[in-house]
Amino acid sequence: MKISRIIAGHITCLVLLVGIYDTASAEPTWEAKCSSYGDIKQNQNPSYQHMNCLLTNSALDANIPPEVVKAVASKENGGWKQFNENGQPIVSTDQGIGIMQITNQAAYDQERLKYHVTYNIQAGVEILKSMYQRNDLPKIKGAGPEIIESWYFPVMAYNGIKPANSPVYKSNGLNNTEAYQEKVFSFIEKDSYLNNSKLGKLDFRSEDFEYDTSSTENIVFKKKEYTFTSPMHASSYHFQKGDKVSVAQDNVRLRSQPSTSSASTTLGKNTTLIIEGTFLYDQSLTSINQFVWYPVRTEDKKHVGFISSAYINKKTNTQPVKKVMWGKTELKLGQIGKVTILSNTNLVKMDSNGSLTTVRTLKKGEEYRVYNYKSNNGGLYGVGGGSYIQKSSNIKYETPSKSKLALLGQ
C-alpha cells in the first residue's frame, strides 16, 4: 500500500487519518468474536480460518464488505501472514508492514503494526474506510457501502490514485487490467465467488481522467459519478435467519457440515433455500477457503445442511422484463444508443496497441446496439463482444428517447 503518496495535498484525508489513531490504539471489540480460535500467540501467524474470522469481523465492524477487505489483504499479502517463517514481521522493500502492508503511517504505532496482527488489520480497515469517505473520488450512483462495486475507487485510493492505477490507458482507452483495484476485484471473483460471478464493470473513457503518464502526480477525476449498467453485488455476509436465497448455478453441493470434505447433496440452479442461522467458518483450520458457510434448508424441508456463501444470492421478486422495440432492434438495459448502417462499412476489433483489424463487412440497413463509445481512432462505437463500428458518414448514430427509456424502466 502506497498510502503516503495518496494524501499529499489532500488535507481532508490527513484529518481523517490523524483522527482515527485513538480508535486503532484501543483493543478492537471485533477480535472477541474470534475467541473460539484461542489467543493469538506472539510472533506466530493465526491459522488461516482464524485470520478469515479476524478479517471478516473487522470489515463488518467498519461496514465494509468482508469480500473487499479479504481481497485487499490477498493483494497486499498473498498468504494472509503477519510474520515470516522465522517469526519476524513481514516488511516489504517499500516498508509496507504486515498483513495489510501499512506504509509510512505516522499516525499509527509502528511497533504495534509489526507485532500485533489485530492492530495491523484494524489500521488497514480504518484507512480503507477513510478512502470511502473522501470527497475527491468518483461515486457510484445508487450504491451504498454494502455493495461491493461501490468500493472500486476507495480500493484504488488505498494503493494510490496514480497514473499506474488509471482504469484505462490514456493512449488508447483500453482497460488497464494491471491497475491495483482491478487486481483486487479479480481476487474477489476468484476467492469470494469462486469465478462463478463476474463483478459489474464500469464504462470508463480516457477523458474521464486527467494525468501525465510521466509524472507521479495524482489523477484528477473529471467525471464525479458513475452508473453500473450490469448487476451489482451486495455482500454475502448480511443474510439473517429466515431470509430466502437462491442457488446461483447448477450442481452446487449442500454439505452436511461446514467443510468441502463432508458428505453432500447436489442442488440445481435457482433452488430456493431458507437461511437457518448465522454463518460459520470452515471446520478445517488449514482450509484456505475465504468464503463462509450458511446453515440452510430447502423450502420443502427435505434437505438441510451448509452451503458456501459463494453460491447463493438474495431471493427477490422479479417482474418479467419488458420488450421495447426501437426500429428493427430491441432496446436493452445498458444500451446507450444504436448505429444504423447507411452504406457498407467494417466491423472492427482493437488490439492492445490500439490498432484496428477488420472482422467483417456490415451491410446497408443493418442496425446495431451501442454500449460504449471510445474517442480514439476517430471515434469508435462499442457494439459488444469487443467489436466496434468506426464513426464515419457511412453510419448514423442515435440515442434512445426519454419515452423509450421510460418504457424500459430506466
What does this entry look like structurally?
With about 400 residues, the chain is α+β, with helices and mostly antiparallel strands. It folds into three domains: about 1-235, Lysozyme (Orthogonal Bundle); about 245-315, Roll (SH3 type barrels); about 325-410, Sandwich (Jelly Rolls). Helix content is about 25%, strand content about 20%. It has a five-stranded antiparallel sheet, with no helix packed on it. A five-stranded antiparallel sheet has the order 16-15-20-19-18, with no helix packed on it. A three-stranded antiparallel sheet has the order 17-14-21, with no helix packed on it. The longest helix is centred in the first third of the chain and has 16 residues, at about 115-130. It starts with a helix and ends with a helix. The model is unreliable at about 5-25 (pLDDT under 50).
